[in-house]
């Protein structure tokens, strides 16, 4: 039977996390553990209960299981990533690279195989929330920037093509593009990009950077004539080639 367990009383002013998983045992363990570390955790068993929880107020992060009754986690992730939804950490018993990459391709910010150590999940939660906070405190960087006809609004997290069409970016794609525009025409290694875009708690061997770069390249190719904005530097890393003008 579907269930919802609201635990917002566990914290005062902490980030609100929504745990979407139909396993009551996992929900109890994760919500209790995160609650003890200062987070307000709501639990939902399916997409319907998730929507009910979201109607109660803004959520800072969603921990989303792949295998759910009704609409599965991948479909939910795809739907939420289209809008300006909260960051998503996906959990799945399917821990193969292909499954992980699919989740990241659909817009997830991170992906953990089940069963996972609650302490590792806590570290990932902290890292994802820290990146989201950094994105929201970008006043010192100016409102935005322009490059090769594109415009990136760092406050609204909005990318516009040279044809003035809004291009939707997941939070991971935005973090990566911001790391590039802040360091144009410089060779950046994968480790540096992991640190700049995903935070120092990321796994240095995480393939997410390559996945995100592939997605970002496809979006930057649309409508701008195939210009090579993100160049692969063999045996070194990547370079963002255009000049960047702050606005």
Automatic annotation (TrEMBL):
Keywords: DNA-binding, Phosphoprotein, Transcription, Transcription regulation, Two-component regulatory system. The modification 4-aspartylphosphate is found at residue 65. Gene3D superfamilies: 3.40.50.2300, 6.10.250.690, Winged helix-like DNA-binding domain superfamily/Winged helix DNA-binding domain. Pfam families: Response_reg, Trans_reg_C. Residues 16-129 form the Response regulatory domain. Residues 142-242 bind DNA. SUPFAM superfamilies: C-terminal effector domain of the bipartite response regulators, CheY-like. InterPro entries: CheY-like_superfamily, OmpR/PhoB-type_DNA-bd, Sig_transdc_resp-reg_C-effctor, Sig_transdc_resp-reg_receiver, WalR-like, WH-like_DNA-bd_sf. Residues 142-242 form the OmpR/PhoB-type domain. The keyword Transcription regulation applies. This is Response regulator. It comes from Phenylobacterium terrae.
């Amino acid at each position: 039977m579907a269930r919802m367990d609201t635990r917002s009383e566990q914290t005062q002013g902490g980030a609100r996390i929504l745990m979407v998983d139909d396993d009551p045992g996992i929900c109890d363990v994760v919500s209790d553990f995160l609650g003890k570390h200062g987070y307000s955790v709501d639990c939902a068993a399916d997409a319907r209960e998730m929507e009910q929880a979201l109607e109660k107020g803004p959520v800072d992060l969603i921990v989303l299981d792949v295998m759910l009754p009704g609409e599965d986690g991948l479909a939910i992730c795809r739907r939420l990533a289209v809008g300006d939804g909260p960051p998503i950490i996906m959990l799945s018993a399917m821990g193969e690279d292909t499954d992980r990459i699919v989740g990241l391709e659909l817009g997830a910010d991170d992906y953990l195989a089940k069963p996972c150590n609650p302490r590792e999940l806590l570290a990932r939660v902290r890292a994802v929330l820290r990146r989201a906070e950094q994105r929201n405190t970008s006043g010192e960087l100016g409102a935005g920037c322009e490059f090769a006809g594109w415009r990136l609004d760092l406050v609204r997290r909005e990318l516009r093509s040279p044809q003035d069409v809004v291009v939707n970016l997941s939070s991971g794609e935005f973090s990566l593009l911001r790391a590039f525009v802040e360091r144009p025409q410089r060779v950046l290694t994968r480790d540096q990009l992991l640190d700049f875009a995903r935070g120092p708690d990321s796994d240095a061997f995480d393939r997410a950077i390559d996945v995100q770069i592939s997605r970002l390249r496809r979006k930057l190719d649309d409508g701008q004539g195939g210009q090579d904005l993100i160049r692969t530097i063999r045996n070194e890393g990547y370079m963002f080639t255009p000049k960047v003008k702050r606005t």
